[in-house]
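Batch job 17 of 40 flagged for manual review because the log was empty.
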Amino acid sequence: MKKAGLVGLVLTGIIMTGCTSNQNELPKQNGNQGSTSSTTAVSKSESSASTEESSQTKATTQDSTASSAATTSGTTNVSVSADEAIKAFQKTYPDASVTSLDLDTSFGTYYYEVKGVDDSTEYEVKIHGETGELTKEREEKLDADERNGVERDNEALSLDGIMSIDEAAAIALKAVGKGEAMEWSLERELSTTYWEVKIVNGRSETSVKLDAKTGDILETELDD
């Protein structure tokens, strides 16, 4: 009987120890599951943030590329600015006032054509858009009714603060919507000095006139 009692006590102790062990392990399993869930949530959040940043970076890069293309379109072979072309003319004819400036291409090479007058003579020069080389094209005496400052007062451009050819092209392209800036003219109408930019899109050509100082669109005309 004593043996049977001892055996019963031993078995009871083993069973209770096993139950205690199982109860101690359960919280650990639950704790591990919570940690895994938290880690997964953080990973998804970081992945989402990384994807959003990548999309924003891509959009910014595309906008920058588009802006750059619009600004430089049609002027890739022009390293001489309009301001530099004007100064070259003024250095050659220091007493003359500039009355017009044109920039267009001849067989793939861009040239500035700059005209000006003094009190007795009209001048015209061509300036290579890449090298800046100046060639005198024409000197012609003014008519009697154009001399002594009359033609100068009527035609001289106001050159202070005018925008560059790239700035004028960007505004004209935005007004038209799409295409490529191919030709520029700087002229005067009444008291306003304006840029006229020709935008070519396939077979379509659109001329955009804009105030050379403010950038305000003055006229848009689709050429036939």
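Reviewer: the log was empty due to a logging misconfiguration, but the result itself is present. The two ends are 123 Å apart (CA to CA). Unflagging and moving on to job 18.
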